[in-house]
Amino acid sequence: MSDHHSDMNGIERNEPTLGPGTPRGAGPAGSPSGGHEAPGERIHHERRDERRFIRVSPPFRVRCEDGQELPGADVSVGGFAVRTSRPLRQGERLSASLLLTVGATELIVPVRAECRHATAEADGRHHVNGFEITDIDPPHRELLRQVVRSCLTGRQASIESLMEGEDPQTPRKRKAAPSTPLPPSRPPKPKGRYVLLFSAIAILALAAAATAYRNFMLIEPSFAAVTAPRIDIRAPGPGILEAHDLQAGDRVERDQELTSITNSDLESELILSRASLNYNEQLIANLKEHLQSAGGGQVSIASSARPESGDAMNFETVSPEIAQARISQFETARDLESSRITALEARQASNEIYSPCDCLVAWALSSADGTYINESERIMTLIRTGENDVMVEALVHMDDIERIEPNQTAYVSLPNASTPIRARVRNVALDIERQPRAGFPSWVRQQQNVASVLLVPEKSLPAESVGKPADVRFTEAPLLGATAEWIWQGMRAVGQFGERVYRAVTQEDEQREAG
Fold it and tell me: Running DSSP on this structure, what letter comes out for residue 418?
């Protein structure tokens, strides 16, 4: 621990302290540098930086890392000294804990120090080794400072005094305060405060005016949502829905296979028809061969051209003329069976379902566990997402519909959007378009005294926004309407930001309490 100290930049800073009549504690450093007497008490001055190095001798010990405990000689905020039987090497580093006795309690202050000097005592058997503290945590440094100051004031340090909010030297500073009055402070100019206040009032007034104009002057529909043309994929016939991995939100391309339906009855009927066709062809070939080999005699022919009934086949003997007529009948039955097979194959091909467009899957029936579906049952719902397909549909009350006309300006606000989207009116109708649109709930369309208005946004809307509700305002004065909408949206964005910050802080507090 160094015994020599100098002021920073050569400037001395003096502070009034009590004179010799007040106990100062043990130690060689910290003598007052000068003083004067005031009525009723004597006051001396000392440099403030000397407070850091003045030594006191409270009862304490130093515990090293290896568990060895050394008796303490003196301590200050900047260092300490210990007694040993042999001198320590100068520059030796030490990691130890100061065990300070404070009343009936022992305080532990971990420090790292470096040996600065070793001095032999008068008896020659012990040495005083001075250490300078090189590393100490701020809380432990403050604790050590309070113990040193308690010793400087002449009071025995205790846990109760350390827990008090009043610094041990605060009463001394209060006594010296009347002799050193502070100069009167100059009050700050309130000009900046008034500027901020008037600016806040102006912003609030502007926001209130924009909100009032938007709510009372602009036309507000009963309900609005983002919609797109809808294509329903339905089952061409009953059967088992084959497995597919399509889910809502997937994109499909034109002519892409979506799924298929397995109709066991249709497949069985097709197999029997093909077998019957083969039977007829073979029967006709055999009959013609018998006619050629009979040479004008009797011919044996089958009684039926469709053996699928399961009955035993009967044969009969007929003349060549009758056999030739039966051949014509068998050929007619063969052609009919061929047409029937073609129809069954067309029905079976229709069970392979393909995408009619480049679309987005809005809904898909699950195919898990062999789902059985009936004819015309809905399998999927696709929405078209091409250019000018994604629009906004609004239901406007009949009292306001006369104020809306094609190509009129409107402003669309989507959830979690900070800026409005400019749009124009495409058409006004008392009912929806012939092509159904996805994203608009059917129960809303059942409202009475409303008309449907389709809006084409100037900025393309993402396909993922289909089905989301929208805030729409129709304006007859585009300039005022745009100004009011932008101001209102800005205030809403500020409110949303504040709400997100509040939620984040609340969640952090809850996690901290739970942890």
Answer: S
- pLDDT tens digits for 407-464? 888 888 888 777 788 899 998 888 766 668 888 887 887 777 888 899 999 888 888 8
Q: Cα 235 to the chain's mean position, in Å?
A: 40
Give me the residues paired with residue 318 across strands: 299
Cα radius of gyration rounded to whole Å, the chain: 50
What is the rounded CA–CA span in Å between residue 153 and residue 327? 136
**Side-chain half-sphere CA neighbours of 195 within 13 A:** 4
Give the CB-side neighbour count of residue 28, counting CA atoms within 13 A: 8
Buried b (16+ CB within 10 A) or exposed e, 460-492: ebebebbeeebbbbbbeeeeebebbbebbbebb
Residue 59: both structure tokens together: 């009862």
Rounded to an integer, what distance in angstroms lies between the CA atom of residue 212 and that of residue 491?
Answer: 13
Structure tokens at 200: 């806040």
H/E run at residue 134:
strand 127-135
Q: Is the pTM of this model over 0.85?
A: no
Q: Tell me which residue has tokens 């929806």.
A: 432
pLDDT digits (tens, 9 = 90+) for 154-187: 776 676 666 665 555 555 544 444 555 555 666 6
Q: How many CA atoms lie within 13 A of 513 on its CB side?
A: 6
